[in-house]
Write a structure and sequence with these properties.
This protein has five helices and no strands. It is mainly α. The protein has one domain (12-33, 44-74, 82-152).
Length: 157
């Protein structure tokens, strides 16, 4: 099994969006471990919402990954994979991305600064375009089955 697929969008956007997200999530992890990163404003009233978003985001992402199992790819799969619509995928067509969006927002709320906001927004926008590319791919690969699923289940929530 090759976990690396082909990018659903321009490769530069695909990889720069992913790297931006990884940077934001790394800063969040370091901040939670009290390891200094980029100086920002830490607002006490946002600490609990940030932790809640982190927990919710990790839950969505891990449930999504768990349900995808061996069909998980970074990008579009080259080989045939199974179309998954059960479990968490009954609630959201993109639970992994939804989880990543929550984690990104958690990072922004945890340490408010220009760099985290810009990288987080950029990553979120790029991930949305990746989703649109994946939807086109799924519609081509699974046809009517995907169209029916798309009509029943929302993109995010």
């Amino acid at each position: 099994m090759n976990i690396m697929g082909k990018p659903a969008i321009n490769p530069f956007l695909f990889f720069s969006g992913k790297i931006s997200g990884y940077m934001v999530w790394t800063m969040l992890a370091l901040n939670l471990l009290h390891i200094p990163t980029i100086h920002g404003i830490q607002i006490a009233a946002l600490e609990i919402p940030s932790l809640i978003l982190l927990a919710v985001g990790m839950g969505w992402a891990l449930l999504g990954l768990g349900h995808l199992g061996k069909s998980t790819r970074f990008g579009l799969p080259v080989e045939s994979t199974k179309f998954k619509t059960k479990g968490i995928y009954r609630l959201s067509r993109n639970p992994i991305y939804l989880g990543l969006f929550c984690i990104t927002l958690s990072a922004i709320l945890n340490n408010v600064n220009v760099i985290t906001i810009i990288l987080g927004m950029y990553s979120t926008i790029v991930y949305h375009f990746i989703i649109l590319g994946e939807e086109r791919f799924l519609e081509q690969r699974f046809g009517e089955e995907y169209k029916m699923y798309k009509s029943r289940v929302r993109r995010y929530l």
